[in-house]
Amino acid sequence: MRWHGNLKPARNRWLEPLFFSTFPQRLTKWASLAHEAMQRGGAAVSALTRPAYVRAILLLAGVWTAMVGIPGAAAWVVHRPTAGSVAAWLDSVDAHTPVRVYRMETGDVVTLPLNDYLVNVLAAEVSPDAPPDALAAAAVAARTYVIRALTHPQASGPTFAAQRGADVTDSAQLDLPWRTIADQERQFGAHQAAYTARFQQAVLATDGQILTQQGAPILAFAFPISAGQTRDALAVLGQPVSYLTPVACPDDPPVAQQPDKRLTPSQLADLLQLPEAAPNPAGFTVSARDGAGYAQTVTYDGRVWSGAEFAARLGLPSAHFQLAAEGGQLVVHCQGVGLGLGMSLHEASVLAARGMGWRDLLAHFYPGTTLMQRA
User: Fold this and answer.
1) Between 7-19 and 83-90, two packed helices, what is the crossing angle to 10 degrees?
2) Fewer Cβ atoms within 10 A, N terminus or C terminus of the chain?
C-alpha cells in the first residue's frame, strides 16, 4: 500500500496514545538534560553558587513532576501497552481494509487503514467523553457506512467520491466528517492522547462488525442531534427504508436549539443567487414539512428550494428551522444538527449513560437489522 504524503508518520502517532507511554521517556530525558547541564556548568559555577544551582534544578524538577510527571504516570497506568493490544490493533480486520478518502479542501485522495479512518471519524462526530457503548455504536455505524460504499456502488451511478478516484469524502454533507490529527491536537489539547485511546478502544472492541439486512450492509446514517425524533427515509431519500423510520429522541430537544442566524437582504441575494439585490425577508416561507418537523420546501416569490438545499446554502446546522422577518433581516431559528436520519449520537450517549449496551443502541435506531462479523 502506498501511503500518501506524511500519512505514515501520522499512523505511528495514532498508535502512540494507546500503546506507548511517553512518561518514562520524558523522565529519562529530563534526568539526562539535568546531568548534562551540571557537567557543562561545573567549571563556571562556583562552589558557593552550585547549591543554589542544584536547588533551582530540583525546583524545576518538582514543578515538572507535579504538572507532567504525575498526570503522565496516571495515564500510563491506565493505558499502558501490552504486546497483545499492539498486535490486535495491527492485525485487526479493519487494519487490513484500505479506505480512499477525497479531501474536499485540497482535492487530494489519501489512503489509510479503516481502523485509523474510523478514529478520525469518531473524533469529528462524537464527544470523546461519551460512554464507551455510545462510542462503540458510532464506530459500528461508521464502519457499516464505509463498507457499503466499498462494496455496493449506487444504482444511480458513481458517487461524488468515486468520480474522483475515492471511496468516500471527508464532507459531512456527502459522507462522514473526520478530524485530522492536527485538528484533534488543537481541539483536545492536553487530553488528545487519552481521547484518541478511547476512540481506538471503541473501534477495536467492535472490529469488523457491521449492520446488515438480508446479508448486505445497510445505509447506516448517523448525525449529532435531532429536534426530538429521527426522520423517515421516505421524506429524506424519496423511498421507504424499513430500518430508517422515526425514532423518538426525548433527550435531544433540551439541547437541540442552535444560535439564531440573521441574514441581511444582500446576504440572502448572494447566498441564494437571487437576481434582485434586496429580496424581502418577509417573503420567505417554509411551505412544507415532514413528520419530524424538518423543512421539505422553502418558497420565495415563485422560487422553490428543498429544505436541505436552503439549509446548505445558508450554512444552517440542520433543515429543522423556522423563519421570521425582524428589523429588515431574515432570522432563522434552527434546532438540531445534521440530517436527522438514522442514529442521533446525542440520544445514543444519553441512553448508553443509562445502561443501554451498544448492540441494543444499534437495534434501537436501526430496527430489523443484523450484526455481522466481517472475515
Assistant:
1) 140
2) C
